[in-house]
């Protein structure tokens, strides 16, 4: 599991613009938002890409770069851009499923009779900082209930304006909890920590 405040994995992919996107190199002043989408077969993803396209000026005002990434081939990614009318959003393609797994994305198999690729990643959004760490992530196991991009940019803005720290980064030992008081887990796997 990828954890906030920890380093993010390497990611270098071709884009429809002809250049490679390198997550470490192509960082905005306040970071980068990487949006992993399912691919050309997903109508919800197409709506999401249009939403993001409409908020790129706000992202630029927040001094963050935005890239949308899928495991689609170049031709499938081209078809998605053609259908959605997205012109300014950086679209990276050819994400391998190994890379998807390295990013903690859920992977699905094609449904019988669908136009889905044999394997593809489910959606995820990562807000990455210029220091090479993850600030926040939103990872889905299916196409529904992803955050609006407006909400993601609100989080970016709140962090910048208030200095709000990354949350969800604790990876130390855990104690049993009775709902009100911390109770030592004297026989638990981390008893030695107490």
Strand-helix topology:
Elements: E1 12-14, E2 20-22, E3 32-36, H1 43-54, H2 56-61, E4 65-69, H3 74-84, E5 90-92, H4 97-102, E6 107-109, E7 119-121, E8 124-128, E9 134-139, H5 149-162, E10 176-177, E11 182-183
Parallel strand pairs: 3-4, 4-5
Antiparallel strand pairs: 1-2, 3-8, 6-7, 8-9, 10-11
Question: Strand percentage, roughly?
Answer: 15-25%
What composes the largest sheet? 5 strands, mixed
CATH superfamily: Glutaredoxin
Please provide the ordered H/E string of secondary-structure elements. EEEHHEHEHEEEEHEE
How many domains, as an integer?
Answer: 1
- What overall geometry do the principal axes of the alpha carbons give? globular
User: What is the C-level CATH assignment?
Assistant: Alpha Beta
* Sequence stretches where pLDDT stays below 50 over 5 or more residues: none
**Strand order in the sheet with the most strands:** 5-4-3-8-9
